[in-house]
């Protein structure tokens, strides 16, 4: 099984050193989670993602500027330079499969910072299309603007809605645009009935699974850092929500991940 969105560098850092990258990968392999998409969210993280993908057969990379990076970089006059560096990293290795996570985050960014977020998102959309990479979208409290910008910029062939957080209607709107919806440990939370309704209307061939590790740890392990070896917990909850056999869901998710990220690895 795959983990379609992970931050191994954060789990491996000084504030989260409970698991080294090697231990995280070993534990994942022990439960048959053998493929991981490592996500870079800023320039150091993007460079780390490429290096990790080159070092570890189980890992491929995604590189981008997180939407909350955009206002800071724009205020410093550094957004154009940073985007150029992201493109250089995306071109540097065939182990880079995606541009992401990019998008909009209206939870942490106020009105003053949103124009630069939207500009950064536009540039990432264009980059993904031009380079033939998958676009991995972060969307927090910005559903309609995300869709509007995707329509405005002509989205690339492959789009993944990371940590899908909308309701069934928003799921249908994303699916109408050809996106894969990636579900995280949040789908196991007691108060996530609306999210489970979205999962229920998502066709099997459009479902992905992720951890967003070290965040969004599934129930019953909330309160501890997340990691890829906990993917099976989320998958079991997803299979129950869909009313399908776990084996059926696993086979679909494995196939979907290859389709979404441009082949096997």
UniProtKB/TrEMBL annotation:
Detail which positions bind a divalent metal cation 2: 138, 162
One of the Pfam families matching this protein, by short name: TatD_DNase
Query: Which terms in the Gene Ontology molecular function aspect does this entry carry?
Result: DNA nuclease activity; hydrolase activity, acting on ester bonds; metal ion binding
The keyword Metal-binding belongs to this UniProt entry's keyword annotation: yes
Q: Which InterPro entries match?
A: DNase_TatD-rel_CS, Metal_Hydrolase, TatD-like, TatD/YcfH-like
Q: What are the entry keywords?
A: Hydrolase, Metal-binding
Q: Domain of life, per the record?
A: Bacteria
Residues binding a divalent metal cation 1: 5, 7, 101, 212
Which cellular component, as a GO term, is one annotated location?
cytosol
Query: Could you tell me which CDD domains the record lists for this protein?
Result: TatD_DNAse (cd01310)
Q: Which PROSITE patterns match?
A: TATD_3
Known NCBIfam families for this protein?
A: YchF/TatD family DNA exonuclease (TIGR00010)
What is the official name of this protein in its record? Uncharacterized metal-dependent hydrolase YcfH
List the source organism: uncultured Nocardioidaceae bacterium
């Amino acid at each position: 099984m795959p983990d379609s969105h992970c931050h191994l560098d954060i789990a491996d850092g000084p504030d989260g050193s409970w698991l080294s990258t090697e231990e995280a990968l070993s534990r994942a392999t022990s439960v048959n989670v053998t493929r991981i998409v490592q996500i870079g969210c800023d320039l150091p993280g993007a460079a780390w993602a490429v290096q990790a993908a080159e070092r570890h057969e189980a890992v491929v990379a995604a590189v981008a500027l997180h939407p909350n990076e955009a206002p800071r970089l724009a205020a410093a006059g550094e957004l154009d330079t940073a985007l150029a560096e992201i493109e250089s990293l995306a071109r540097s290795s065939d182990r880079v499969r995606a541009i992401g996570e990019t998008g909009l985050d209206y939870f942490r960014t106020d009105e003053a910072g949103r124009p630069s977020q939207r500009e950064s998102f536009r540039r990432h959309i264009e980059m993904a299309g031009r380079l033939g990479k998958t676009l991995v979208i972060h969307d927090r409290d910005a559903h309609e603007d995300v869709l509007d910008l995707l329509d405005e910029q002509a989205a690339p062939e492959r789009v993944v809605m990371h940590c899908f957080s909308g309701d069934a209607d928003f799921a249908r709107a994303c699916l109408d645009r050809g996106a894969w919806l990636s579900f995280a440990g949040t789908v196991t939370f007691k108060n996530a009935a609306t999210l489970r309704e979205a999962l229920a209307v998502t066709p099997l061939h459009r479902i992905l699974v992720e951890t967003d590790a070290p965040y969004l740890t599934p129930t019953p392990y909330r309160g501890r850092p997340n990691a890829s070896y906990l993917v099976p917990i989320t998958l079991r909850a997803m299979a129950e929500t869909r009313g399908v056999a776990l084996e059926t869901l696993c086979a679909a998710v494995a196939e979907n991940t290859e389709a979404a990220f441009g082949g096997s690895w």
